[in-house]
Design a protein that fits this description.
This protein is mainly β and about 130 residues long. The protein has no helices and 11 strands. The chain has strands at about 5, 10-15, 20-25, 35-40, 45-50, 60, 70-75, 80-85, 90-100, 115, 120-125. A hairpin with a 6-residue loop joins strand 5 and strand 6 (about 60). The radius of gyration is 13 Å and the shape is globular. The chain starts with a strand and ends with a strand.
């Protein structure tokens, strides 16, 4: 089992930046694909960005390409999401997730992820 804890959310004006962190417990972190998802009120949870275990491969939703950057520090069991040029429609609860079945592929489906954090709220004001 692996436990995940997000931090770094908050209130920011449009055009601003935030950096989310996700601290993972256990030895599994460095071996598996990790991702960020988000869920806005009344909407389904959606894929934001993913990174494989070596960080050699990343994947982004079209809506965040060029603005968000996912990274990881396997020595510190920590996942990051740098969010720049934030927009009001980026407002959501952001979750980090781990896929226990692979360290190479990056799935865009929330159903493929086994470990989830509690989420951190990001609110972008216009």
């Amino acid at each position: 089992q692996m436990q995940l804890a997000e931090s770094g959310g908050g209130l920011v004006q449009a055009g601003g930046s935030l950096r989310l962190s996700c601290a993972a417990s256990g030895r599994t972190f460095s071996m598996i694909t990790m991702a960020w998802f988000r869920q806005a009120p009344g909407k389904e949870r959606e894929f934001v960005a993913g990174i494989n275990r070596s960080a050699a491969r990343t994947s982004y939703a079209d809506s965040v390409k060029g603005r968000f950057t996912i990274s990881r520090d396997n020595a510190k069991n920590t996942l990051f999401l740098q969010m720049n040029m934030l927009k009001p429609n980026d407002t959501a609860v952001y979750y980090c997730a781990g896929d226990a079945h692979t360290g190479v592929a990056i799935s865009l489906s929330r159903r493929d992820y086994d470990y989830w954090g509690q989420g951190t709220q990001v609110t972008v004001s216009s």
